[in-house]
Amino acid sequence: MLLPDGLTPSILAFVLVAALAAGWVDAVVGGGGLIQLPALLLVPGLAPVQALATNKLASVFGTTTSAVTYQRRVHPDLRTALPMAAVALAASFGGASVAALLPAPVFKPVIVVALVGIAVFTAFRPSLGEVTALRHTGRRHSGTAAGIGAVIGFYDGVLGPGTGSFLVFALVSLLGYDFLHASAKAKIVNVATNLGALAFFVPHGAVVWGLGLLLAAANTLGGYLGSRTATRRGTGFVRAVFLVVVSALVVRLGWDVWTETLRPLAR
């Protein structure tokens, strides 16, 4: 399928603007799926699995553009980022392959609690992520990075919202990077998690190619602008956007938990 039958010019314009905004947010600190995926779910005739797969196609272009821009302007250490990305790619493929077997409502309450904890922890530790001060070296550093890639890569394949934000927080809190360099590495890993999920979705015919490539163009522009903004404004700006995006994720996923789980029980 190139384009959904129910796609109108006004809806297409809406999802393109959403993809542009998502690319910008994703480039700065991750969490662009909070904007892009819900917009895709509003497209008539698009099944949820098609929305998820098409979102991954668009996102891989935006995250690749961001990763390249960060590489040129920030020069993140690829000795950590590339092995971490390789593990994340394999884990994301595994997550996508079992996504249909693991209902999202089971995960969402846990994710909301985790995001609240992350927001509170970051807000009350203003020095967190100001400068890079690595907590580990050698094999322990590499092992921790690989573990982060495996866990968050699998999560991205299964569900996905907030993957970039989880990566940034893990790189800051567990490895000791500042927010800017953590975001630069997170983009490289996020490219891999998107590719891993696509490696499962493409052979199963879930991607809507025409719509996905249109969104990819908008996402790429947003990713380029966002990464340039982040590298120009620095760590303090990235930290502030991180707190805003995590708070928005809490609200969005908290609403999902309420409508899907708690409200039916209250009736």
From TrEMBL:
<protein>
    <recommendedName>
        <fullName>Probable membrane transporter protein</fullName>
    </recommendedName>
</protein>
<feature type="transmembrane region" description="Helical">
    <location>
        <begin position="237"/>
        <end position="255"/>
    </location>
</feature>
<keyword id="KW-0812">Transmembrane</keyword>
<keyword id="KW-0813">Transport</keyword>
<feature type="transmembrane region" description="Helical">
    <location>
        <begin position="197"/>
        <end position="225"/>
    </location>
</feature>
<comment type="similarity">
    <text>Belongs to the 4-toluene sulfonate uptake permease (TSUP) (TC 2.A.102) family.</text>
</comment>
<keyword id="KW-0472">Membrane</keyword>
<dbReference type="Pfam" id="PF01925">
    <property type="entry name" value="TauE"/>
</dbReference>
<keyword id="KW-1003">Cell membrane</keyword>
<feature type="transmembrane region" description="Helical">
    <location>
        <begin position="82"/>
        <end position="100"/>
    </location>
</feature>
<feature type="transmembrane region" description="Helical">
    <location>
        <begin position="106"/>
        <end position="124"/>
    </location>
</feature>
<dbReference type="GO" id="GO:0005886">
    <property type="term" value="C:plasma membrane"/>
</dbReference>
<keyword id="KW-1133">Transmembrane helix</keyword>
<dbReference type="InterPro" id="IPR052017">
    <property type="entry name" value="TSUP"/>
</dbReference>
<dbReference type="InterPro" id="IPR002781">
    <property type="entry name" value="TM_pro_TauE-like"/>
</dbReference>
<feature type="transmembrane region" description="Helical">
    <location>
        <begin position="145"/>
        <end position="177"/>
    </location>
</feature>
